[in-house]
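Input/output pair, single chain:
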Amino acid sequence: MPLPDTMFCAQQIHIPPELPDILKQFTKAAIRTQPADVLQWSAGYFSALSRGDPLPVKDRIEMPVATQKTDTGLTQGLLKVLHKQQCSHKQYVELADLEQKWKNLCLPIEKFRALLQLDSCEKRIEWIKFLALGCSMLGGSLTTAMKHLCEILTADPEGGPARIPFETFAYVYHYLASLDPDFSPSEVDTYLSTLKGSTDARKSGMIGLSDFFFGKRSLENLEESEDVGH
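Output:
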């Protein structure tokens, strides 16, 4: 004869006191991050939570801006998660570890491998270079890529000048320009010299988006003057 179903009353069921808050925070994080694969992202979320690691969570919801035809799944918010909450404390990151974090954010692995093909490396990569490559995938130009980089690296509040150290800006600009045959070393050096003049005037060693675009306009004016002279 089969045993009757076990019956419980409310007093017999123990609910861990921390469970409601864990579920509440998880739900809020999932809504902000909008993962493409909730189960895969959840595995990464709770794995990081159990180890006390930074969580793969966006600061806020991002509205999609790419078309279905060109959408890579990568966004500035996801790059910021990798930088600010995952990899920013390391100069170099192991590719295996970075690949797992990439998967936890439900990003296509083929896009990860495509990024690495731009700068061949074996087991690890300098984090700032990978971040720069990610920014270049977001934007169709070097200018757009650098804008994304400033907005990710800055400690300024959202909507502010997005300032970062000039040395960091120059390092990344040199790096990305070296991957593009359309940029000559002399052109890059001239631009950065023009830009450094505007930041040195403030004696801060920092560059914001306004300085960045001022430098671009100054260089364009210089090139126009040279063309007229010839």
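Residues 21 and 107 are 28 Å apart (CA to CA). The chain is about 60% helix and 5% strand.
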